[in-house]
């Protein structure tokens, strides 16, 4: 597996365990060194993180390839990528 050259990213989803009431900020600019989470790197871009507050304990599948049409969530697009 190769990554996009930016730390933390991968060509498959991240399974992230979240808790009810928990708020997480997911990187939408692709510059985070701690993908898929926001590390503030978007200040150099015109993008903002997707901030989500969850209402139940669950596992969410967060896009790691940055190509999903439903970011921050995986939509299966990674399965169509060549690397
Ligand atoms: S990791 Fe699945 S669409 Fe990006």
Can you describe this structure in just a few lines?
This protein is mostly beta strands.
Can you walk through the features of this model?
The protein is mainly beta and 83 residues long. It has one domain. The relative contact order is 0.27. The site of FE2/S2 (inorganic) cluster has 12 residues, from loops.
Judging from the principal axes of the Cα atoms, what is the shape? globular
Number of strands: 4
**Helix/strand-derived class?**
mainly beta
In the predicted model, the low-confidence regions spanning at least 5 consecutive residues are 1-5
The gyration radius over C-alpha positions equals 12 Å
Ligands, deduplicated: FE2/S2 (inorganic) cluster
Total of domains:
1
Number of helices: 0
The amount of helix comes to: under 10%
Order of helices and strands: EEEE
Sequence of strands across the biggest β-sheet = 1-4
């Amino acid at each position: 597996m190769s990554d996009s050259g930016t730390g933390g990213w991968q060509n498959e989803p991240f399974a992230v365990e979240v808790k009810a009431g928990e708020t997480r900020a997911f990187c939408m600019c692709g510059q985070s060194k701690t993908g898929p989470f926001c590390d503030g790197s978007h200040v150099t871009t015109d993008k903002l993180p997707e901030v989500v507050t969850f209402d139940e304990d669950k596992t969410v599948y967060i896009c790691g390839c940055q190509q999903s049409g439903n970011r921050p969530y995986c939509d299966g697009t990674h399965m169509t990528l060549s690397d």
